[in-house]
Structures are given as C-alpha cells and as structure tokens.
Amino acid sequence: MGVETLPQAEKQKRTARPNYNHIHALPLPLKTYPLPLLIPHNPFSLLHVVYTYVTQLLAPPISHPSTLFQAYFSPETRSVHVVDEDTIRVLWERGFFGKGSLSRSEPSWLDREKRRKGLLVGETSEDVTKRRREERREFKKERARKEREAIEEKLLQENTVAVSSHTSQVLDGTGEVLETDRVDDTRNTANTLADDCNGSPAGPESHSPALPGRNIVLMDSKKQLGASQVDQTRSRITPEVMKAAMEPLVALASVTGPSGEQISNQEHLQLSLEEAFFLAYGLGVLQIRDQSNLKAITTPSLFSLFRQHSYFPPISMDSLQPDDPFLASYVVYHHFRSLGWVVRPGVKFAVDYLLYNRGPVFSHAEFAVVIVPSYSAPYWTATPERRSESRKKESKSWWWLHCLNRVQSQVRKSLVLVYVEIPAPSSVDSSVKTELTDTACLPETTDISQWLKGYKVREIALKRWIPNRSRD
Question: 61 in helix, strand or coil?
C-alpha cells in the first residue's frame, strides 16, 4: 500500500498545469467560421450546412479584429516590438508569435517577478525549465559520486588482495620481522608521497594501506587545482566588472520599488521580420509604425524595408537582389504557416526554423528546417561570373551536412532541406525601381505577390543512417 500511495502524494504536491487546450484553442489571431459537419446518411446535417452557408453568404461574419494590433519597427535590433500587454497575450496564445525580450520563449518576466516577491504561487515555464535542469544536474552528480565510490572500493579490494599475497610470501620466506619491515616501508612510501603532494607531514593517525594513501593524494590534488582555479577567477573579477553586474539589479529595484508598490511590466514581445510581415501582409492583423516618428508604414514600404535590413549593415534599394535573405526565409515561413505548422526560430539547433504540430507547450518540434537557395533559372548560368557566384551560394560541404544531421538525430528531430528556387530579376523590379521616390519605400500600388509568385519550394527530408538500427 505504501508503494501505491507514494505517487498519489507526489501528484498532490504538484501544481495544476494550465489548460493549454483552452488557452491555445485558436491557431491564429483570427476568428474562423467553418461549415458544420456533413453526415451523408443524415438529411438534417445537409440542411444545416446549407443554412449556415447561406447565412454566411448574406451576412459575412467578421474574422479580423476591429482594431489592428500595433507594433513598432526597431532598426537597431532588426525586429518588431509589441508593447501592449493584451496584444502580446493574443499573439502568443494564438499562434505562438514572437518571444519575450526578457524570457527564453513565452513572455513571462512579470510572472517570474511576482513569484520572486511572493505574490504568485504557480510556476512559470522558465521556473519549470530551471527546476528540471537542477534535477538533472543533481542526478548527474549523484551518479558520478556512486561511480567514483564503486571504483575506489574495487581498487581497495584489489590492493588488499595484493598486500595479503605479499604478506604470505614474506611469512613463507624469512618470518614476521621482515614482513613487518616490508609493510612499514610500503606505508612510509605512501606517506612520503602524500607529504610531497599535500605539503604537510602525515601524522600517526594517517597511516593506512598503500592504495588509500594514493587516493588521498589524488583528492588533495583536485582540491588544490580547484582552489587555484577559484583564485584565478577572483583575480579576473575587477571592481568595474562587479559594478556593471550590479547595475541591472539596482535598476530593477528602482523600478519595482518597495513590496507594496505595483510591479510594472518591463518586457515586450519581439517579432522577427518574417513573423511581423506574415501578420501584416499574410493575415492583415498587424500595423507596424516607425519607432522614431510613430508613423504607420505601408505594406509595400515594409516589404522593401525588411529586405534592406536583412543585410548587415542595411543596403540601399538599388542593391537588392531576388535572393535577399528576407525573401528566401519569408517564402519558407509563409509556406509552412499556410500548411498549418507552428514555425519557430531554430538557431538553438543550428537550423533556420523548427516546425511544431500544435505549439511548444504541447510537444517538441518534429522537424528542423534548413533553407538552401537554388539557382536553376537560366539567368544565373548565362555568364561565368553569375555561374560561379550562384554555385558558391548554393554549395554546401558534406562535413556541414553530416554535422547538422547528427545534431538533429541527437535531439530526435527530422532534418528537412528546403530548396527555394530563386527566380531571375523580372521586369517588375526594374519598373518598380523607376517609380521609386524614396529608397526605403515602394509605391502604394505595388503588388507584392509579383515577387512571391516566382518562388518555388522543394522539400527533402533526411534521416541519419545508423547500421545497428537500419539493418534489413
């Protein structure tokens, strides 16, 4: 009975998890109105479908929010910032867009701060991750300690057997006097080695067999090595470094104030260029403003602005090419978002994107996406200069592929190489450039689909071949 009640007691101690199915019920920050299910053998279901279709046709329901979400473009960070708390929650809970500026993923700085001050009982995702890492660290320490104790015990047993065999040989030859002297010589040698390593003479209580004395020497040498490393670390910590490290704590204390004062949220949502453009152009729910003058940026101007800032430093409009980093990455992002995947940045695993079935709170990412540009259009091979330049951009080494594939197999993700067919510079580019009045803006009548429709996406899934697991 005791073994069965222990898991029940542990379950009672755990805090209840949020209802993620209810929180993240909508996959996008839009309201959809699907038709009811059609059951062929039920005639009433057909009438229900026809009634719903006619109703939505005559009085179309509103799917977009009445007021567009507001965000601000930051050229310093090459990202888009959302500061309204309600908008932050909507964009994260409906599609997992962006990341907290002071968090690993979900914006949870305010909840962590409240929990630190004792105003919140539950755990945030950051706290859960920290607790799991501490548990894994303690488990590894305990496992290493047990392995070390097992090795020491085994060596002690082997040394005891060796000493007993040596004593029996001495007794058979010359008697007890020589045996005592021989053992004393062995102990004196071990104590001498301990004195040389420890720097202090061993007292009478430190006499032990040869192997335990050797173990003591090793442990003391490790302690001395650790002390020297601590001294070196302390020598590198200057007063300037300590002052710089304490400045954020002082600033935080000045912001929060005493315990009775209300805590203000210091975190904002940071959207990547692809996420922001998908919300503004693909869904039409986000309005992005200039951070300096707070003026709204039109979608065509936003398109050229993001293309320019995909380079570092940003380049002029005349230098833009069809293989701009923003264009290739946005085509892939839009492609997988339109297929229903939750697309997140994959820099942690050395890839461009991670694909989640429903979201990070439900399961781990299933696929890791790497974008590879492909120059198969005749334009890119017309001259030797273009041919060499395109070949240099699309070529990858086998070492790179093997290393990347091994990393994904270790974290149990399937690697997907996404080849983006780069089109030739079309007549649209030249016509638009002649109409430009500002190097950072495009005309209002510019159709962005003229750029996007020329790109094609090919997906190739790779799997690491392991002989022991892939035999016939």
Answer: coil
Q: How many CB atoms lie under 10 A from the CB of residue 263? A: 16
Residues in the chain: 472
Strands (E), 60-217: 69-74, 79-82, 99-100
**pTM, 2 dp:** 0.71
Which residue, 469, 101, 399, is CA-closest to 266? 101
Q: Sign of the C-alpha dihedral, residues 407, 413, 414, 418?
A: negative
Phi and psi, residue 419, nearest 5°: -90, 125
Look-up: residue for tokens 């409009």?
317
Q: Which two tokens stand for residue 360?
A: 């990070």
Tokens 């057997």, residue?
Answer: 161
Q: Which of 262, 221, 229, 268 has the alpha carbon at shortest distance from 117?
A: 262
**456 contacts 409 by C-beta, under 8 angstroms:** no
Paired residues of 79 in beta bridges = 74
State both tokens at 112: 């962590």
- How is 402-437 classified by DSSP, letter by letter? HHHHHHHHHTT-EEEEEEEEPPPP-HHHHHHHHH-S
CA distance 441 to 429: 13
Element (H, E) at 54: helix 43-58
**For the chain, what is the total number of helices (H) and then of strands (E)?**
16, 10
Q: pLDDT digit string (tens) for 282-338?
A: 999 999 999 889 999 999 999 999 999 999 999 998 888 899 999 999 999 999 999
Residue 456 DSSP SS3: strand
351 contacts: CB under 8 Å, gap ≥ 6 = 368, 369, 370, 404, 408, 415
Listed residue (218, 194, 196) closest to 206, CA to CA: 194
- Are the C-beta atoms of 307 and 326 separated by less than 8 Å? yes
| CA separation for the pair 95, 337 (Å, rounded) | 10
DSSP E strands in 268-364: the ranges are 269-271, 286-290, 342-345, 353-356
Pick the range with the lowest mean pLDDT from 91-105, 230-244, 383-397, 420-434: 230-244
Sheet arrangement for strand 456-462:
342-345, 353-356, 367-374, 414-421, 456-462
H-only helix segments in 74-124:
85-93, 109-116
Q: What is the pLDDT of residues 22-73, one digit of tens each?
A: 999 999 999 888 889 888 888 888 899 999 999 999 999 999 888 999 999 9
Q: How confident is the model at residue 175 (pLDDT cuts 50, 70, 90)?
A: very low
Where residue 99 falls among pLDDT bands split at 50, 70, 90?
very high
Strand partners, 80: 73, 271
Residue 269 CA to residue 59 CA, distance in Å, equals 35
Element (H, E) at 47: helix 43-58
Residue with tokens 């230098």: 319
Q: Determine the Cα–Cα distance for residues 235 and 455; give it in Å rounded to an integer.
A: 56
